[in-house]
């Protein structure tokens, strides 16, 4: 999906949501090394190229902040896909509410990824 958006859109954004800051850091490193584009990161502790990226890696709460910010509507309208990583962790650490809000707020396709089903 990331490759598709980068190829087909000159300004489209893919948002990759991970449930923890540690996974955000890991995915940021992996995506940065694989794609020749600006990758942003947004957690409670760290903010890098959030508004100037083509791929944003974040935790659910920080993406909700962007969606609820009236000054970020241009950026939000550029989001082509939201990828929810480790979706089986959705109910852990009280994050379910953030995921629910994102599903309600997003106007783009949302894809859930999990290596664990149960």
How many beta strands in the DSSP annotation?
A: 6
What distance lies between the first and last C-alpha atoms, to the nearest angstrom?
Answer: 25 Å
CATH level 1 name: Alpha Beta
**Second-tier CATH architecture:** 3-Layer(aba) Sandwich
Q: Count of DSSP helices? A: 5
Helix content: 25-40%
Strand arrangement within the widest β-sheet reads 3-2-4-1-5-6
Please summarize the sheet with the most strands: 6 strands, mixed
Mean pLDDT over the residues: 91
**Structural class by sheet pairing and helices:** alpha/beta
How do the strands and helices of this protein lay out in sequence?
Layout (H helix, E strand, L loop, with lengths): L1 H7 L4 E5 L3 H14 L4 E4 L4 E2 L6 E4 L1 H9 L4 H5 L1 E6 L11 H10 L4 E3 L6
Parallel strand pairs: 1-4, 1-5, 2-4, 5-6
Antiparallel strand pairs: 2-3
Helix pairs in contact: 3-5
Give structural attributes.
single chain, alpha/beta, Rossmann fold, 38% helix
